[in-house]
Amino acid sequence: MGTYTYQDYCGSDCLFGCPWDYDLAMRVLLVEDEARIAHFVAKGLREQSYAVDVVSSGEQALYQAAITAYDLVILDVMIPPPDGFNVCRELRDSGQTMPILMLTARDAVDDRIKGLDRGADDYLTKPFEFGELLARLRALLRRSKTLQPTRLVVADLVVDTAAQTVERGGKAIPMTAKEYALVEFLAREAGRVVGRAEISEHVWDEEFDPFSNLIEVYINRIRRKIDAGFAKPLLHTRRGAGYILSLSGETPEPKQTAVRSRDDV
User: Fold this and answer.
1) CATH superfamily of 2-144
2) Which segments in the chain show pLDDT lower than 70?
3) Is 0.70 surpassed by the pTM of this model?
4) Could you give phi then psi for residue 200, rounded to 5 degrees?
5) DSSP type of residue 33
6) What is the torsion angle, in degrees rounded to the nearest 10, for the CA atoms of residue 180, residue 209, residue 23 and residue 70?
7) What is the gyration radius of the CA atoms in the chain, in angstroms?
8) Is CATH 1.10.357.10 the right assignment for the domain spanning 151-245?
């Protein structure tokens, strides 16, 4: 039991995560049929600002991966059919390229080889330390995308993705885990309009109700926190399109090449 205790690893004061180089996977699919482990891992990842969907069988995993774009999959081997090996193979055969970390109680070399040959990117044997799981996820994410800076800067707003903190004008801004996840996503997409569907896909999990006003509620909370008391707002609403984090609220205009008509000749 103690092997899985992330509080023992991170410390009881750990609120937003550990101060390591942090490459956020916004949306994770956790495939684990042991309820205790699934609950523990999902809870820990959510406290690290990941959005986590949890399923307990291979059939459910394939369905979820077919309808949702995941940034990473944590896949247990011994799950109701199809097992983790076959799920991994089917995901790769269908063209899915997200990193896959396989979990198993087996420690035989042949099993590790089998998982890697089916398309897994890494392997972690149970029982494991939660800190090691986080480190392996970060390593996989660094391989799967271009390296992101640990400090995201938009005008005088600074998002520190290592410490998971936000400040503006040198003043620390307290954030809940979900508020922070939304701010970091907007900061990574600074200068680009992002819609509700994109936000819900990357910041919330499958339990999100697309007809609720939850995104608007969080946008208003964040706006009050990062814009109140400052001369120029950073978080802007583009009616009918979504939201943009930028100093001007404008997206860069595309360069246009002059085209002469026949009448100009």
Assistant:
1) Response regulator (3.40.50.2300)
2) 1-25, 106-107, 144-149, 249-265
3) no
4) -65, -35
5) -
6) 180
7) 21
8) no
